[in-house]
Every structure is written in C-alpha cells, then in structure tokens.
Amino acid sequence: MCRELQQALRERAPELACLYTLEKAAAACGASQDELLQIIVELIPLVCTSPEGIGCRLTLGEKTFSWGACDATGAMFSADITVRGRKAGQLQAFRTDAYAEGDGPFTHAEKHLIRMVASWTGNTIESRMAGPLDSESDNRLAQIVYSNPIATFVIDARHLTTHWNRACENLTGVKAAEVIGTGKHWMAFYAHEQPVLADLMVDQVPEEEIIEHYGGKAHRSAIMDGAYEVEFFFPDLGTNGKWVYFTASPLKTMRGEVVGAIETLQDVTQRKEAEEELRCELAGLEQELKGRFRFESIIGKSNSMQKMYALLNDLTETDTTVLIRGESGTGKELVAKALHYSGHRAARPLITVNCSALTESLLASELFGHIKGAFTGAVKDKVGRFELAEGGTILLDEIGDIPPGMQIKLLRILQEKEFERVGESTTRRADVRVLAATNRNLAELVRTGAFREDLYYRLKVVEVTIPPLRERRDDIPLLLDHFITLFNEKHKKRIRRVAHEVIDVFMKYAWPGNVRELEHALEHACILCHGSVIMLSHLPAELLETPARVPPAVAAHTHAAGHVLQALRQAGWNKAKAARLLSVSRPTLYRLIDRYSLKEPPEQV
C-alpha cells in the first residue's frame, strides 16, 4: 500500500509543485491578474516532458496570453476555465515535437495537470472578484446587485470592480467585461482617472474631504449608516453629460472591517432640466411681478404707474436730461434715484440741489463753486455741486423757482457741458447727467415770461409725470403694506394689518399731500397702535373730520350714469361694494340710483 501511495505521490509531484508555485505567484502578484495569467502559460511547459516542444495559450474574454509555439495544426489539449458556473476562457497546450504514437502527445499526468490549472485559474479569478467577502455573502450580494433595476456596482478593498449590473451598463454605456476585475470603474464617469464615491468609502475618507471633493454637494445619508449621497453633473457621461444621483456605502465584515463598497446610480437629468425650466419660469414671473408692482423704491401697480415704469426703464441707460413733474409728495426724488441707481452711473454720486432755498448768488456758488475772495465771506475755495457730481447725476429740485440770472448759466452747462467757478475765469468741464424736478407748470411759466423757453426745452428732452395718489387709489393697499413693514422695524411694532374701515377712509380721502401725506398719516397711526391692527381711533383727526375731497372733474366722470351702473354690475348690485368702487358713501349711491332711475335686474333680486 505504501509503495502505491509513494508511486501516486511521485506521479503527482509535478502537479503539486505547479499548484504550489502558482499559489505563491498569486500572493506575490497582488492586484495584477494579467501578470498571473502570463505566469501560468510560462509554467505549464516547464512541468511537462520535453518542455522545449510545448507551447501554451490561455484565453480569458478578449485577452490572450501565450508562451512558446502555439501551432493549431499540431497536437493540442485544452481545458475550459469556468467562472461563476460559466465558461470564461480556455487553457490550451500544444506539442510540436515528435512523440511516440502509443503514448499520445500528452501523458495522463500532463492532461490532469492542465485540467487542474484551468480549474485553479477559474477559482482564483472568482475569488479575486469576490474579494475578502465569504462566498455566501457574495452570493447574496450578487443576487442583490444583478436583480436590482437601479444601476449598481461593487468594488473590493483593493478598488477592483467585482460587480457591474445591466442597469449600470445602460446608464454609463460601459460594459461589465470592461471593468470587472479591474480598477477602471472611474472611466464610466470621468475622462481622466479620479476616485468615485465608492473609492472614498473604501479609503474611509473623512466627511469634510468627501464634501469638498464634490464641491459641497455631498451629504451623509439619513437612511443608511455610513453612506453618503450626492447629486452631481458629469460632463463626460453620455453625449451631453448627465446629472446623476448616487449613493455609496461601505461593505464591512462582522468585525467592522471595510472590505469594499457598493454604489447605486440614478439618472436625474430630466428632473434637473425640468427644475431648471421651472426655476427660469419662476424667475421670469418674479421679474414680471417686480416690474408690475415696483421699480427700484417706487411702489405701485396701477396702469398709470405701469406706463411710468416702462418710460423709466427706457431712460435708465441713457444720459438724457429728464424733467420730472409731479405734485408735492408724489415722490419726484424717488424717481430721480431710480433713474440714477439703475443706470451705468450708479457707482458715482447723486447730488441734489434745492433751487428754491437759495438766493441767486448763493445758488451760483452752490452749483458751480467759488474761489477764495470771490465775494464777502468767501474765505477759501469751494467745490460746487456739479464738480461733486462728476461722473454721476445732479438733481435740480424745484427747478421752476430758479432765478432768471441762473437760468442763463444753467442753459450753458446743459448745452456745452462747461462752467466757471464764481470769481474764476478758468473753464471747467462737467461730465454729469442732469435731472430736474418741479411741481409747477413750466409751460405756463414760459408763457408768462418767468421761465426761459430755451431752458425749458433743454430740460424737457424727456418728461416723466408722476400721477397723484388720488388718481391711483389701487396702489394704496400696496403702499400701506410697504409702510407698515418699515414702521414695524422703525418703532419695534408688530402690526399685521389695517382694519377694513380704515382702508375705506384711506380710499375715499383725496390725499392732497399724496404719498408723503399717506406715509405720515400711517406713521401717526402706527405710533398710537399698541395692538396688531390699525383702527380708526389711531388715525390723524383731519382724515376723519375732512370729507372725501374728489376734484369736480373726477367726480363728474366717476358719478356719470354709465359709471354708476358699471360699478353696480361689477359689484353684483351689492350697494356697499359699489359705493367703495365709486369712492362715495352709501347714501350718495342711493341718491345717484334714484337720480338716474337705475333698476336692479330681476335675476339679481
């Protein structure tokens, strides 16, 4: 028996030596699978009889490794390499020298050796694909990955790709055969090698570095422990790049050792594009609303304000001289600020001069400056407002009150952009945009000779007329909301709204002082209000004691039979609503109904 065992052992010695050498080579080669396969084809001839007449070739997928003469016309013996129960390649041995016919080209021991090496090769590749995970866990993982409709791939502790499912192929366009067993999974996402999220999981990279790697878009998963989620755009993925939402989680042993990582991917390009379209649409709507309800610090949504906004928008990027007309308190200075700060001179000064507050001599000094000794009290040189406004804008407020002598000097600077300081003969240039504001009728002043006609037309290149508040009553609720917000902050209040009866008073009042009067009236009410709602008792007495003051022309237009009937129809013949629309009391509305013999339709009764 011992002799038989010794004989069998002697026969298997080459086979055992070969497998032992391969195991040592596998351990030494580490991650280099190609190097190991090349060692196999070089080792097999060495353990066969007459090695010089043996050639060997190993094919695995699209790769081929060979050694010696591999002549397919000669004698050949082959064995299949099986991975995961499927044929993955073939190991072939070729004999090109002469051999005894009775023994055949390969001995029984050599054939057995070739089969054993082929089997060992398949097992080694399979174990490398599985990494350090045990086979049972790997089988479960493989089932999860390959049955998952979501793109999924797995890498091991050496950053070699072990699993790459069909959904991952469809998403990235990279086939599993191109990456399985390699560390090249990065090429599915980038043009140049760099780590993916799964790699960062394997390397246990600190959280702050993961977040930084993805430009602040990565965050810890709220569902999976130790996992991270990212939504990122990959410009090299697909034809035009893709937005991908991906999650990676480390794979750990029972002892907590990281042995790999699994990553799932979802193409969210369509959703991101839809979000971007919606964002653009909302931005457009927001811009439209901003344009509808305000222009810079000017507030109003009425038709007259819309027309003014359109005109201001055309004037912002020009240097045209503009005449701003409007009653006191309408906001002429706000219009001037809007023109300046929305234009290309916004970074330069906006200088305002009240032309009605100074004598002619003082106004000349104020506008153009003076030199020391130019007049009594001129103890030093002074820079004028036009020089201070260099590169910016100057607002000549109350231009209708400018003295006649100053009108000539102002005409020169408008025409020639030149001026001299008082008491100086040196001509200076002025790169200044001129805006003028007045509450007076300059055309009438020209007719009476109080205002130069040539200056009037130089100022009135474009005229902006601000409508009085009584002509844009629809803007009153907007203005109330705006001022309440300001006064809450200024006076540390928590006022939420204005009572309906207060709004009725505001809507009926004629507001001779326009928006400024409304602002002061509301501030008065805010100071007296200690609750959250402004009531009638908080209003200034004059608003409650003074009847609604509607100009006769407006009243005649508003109270015509057709307008009264239109208001009644618009209010569904609700008398209270119709009275508010007409800005009259209910008794006045009843008198108008009687005067015009207006009858409510039967269906409304």
Report how far the terminal alpha carbons are from each other: 123 Å
Radius of gyration: 46 Å
Helix fraction bin: 40-55%
Write the CATH architecture name of the largest domain: 3-Layer(aba) Sandwich
Low-confidence runs (pLDDT<50, min 5 residues)?
548-558
Briefly note the structural class of the backbone. alpha+beta
Tell me, rounded to a whole number, the average pLDDT: 82
Biggest sheet record: 6 strands, antiparallel
What is the CATH class designation of the largest domain? Alpha Beta
The H-level CATH homologous superfamily of the largest domain, spelled out, is P-loop containing nucleotide triphosphate hydrolases
Q: Approximately how much beta-strand content do the residues carry?
A: 15-25%
Beta strands, count? 23
User: Domains counted in the coordinates: how many?
Assistant: 5
- Taken from the alpha-carbon principal axes, the silhouette is elongated
Walk across the major sheet and give the strand order.
Answer: 6-5-10-9-8-7
Helix count from the secondary structure assignment = 24
CATH topology of the largest domain: Rossmann fold
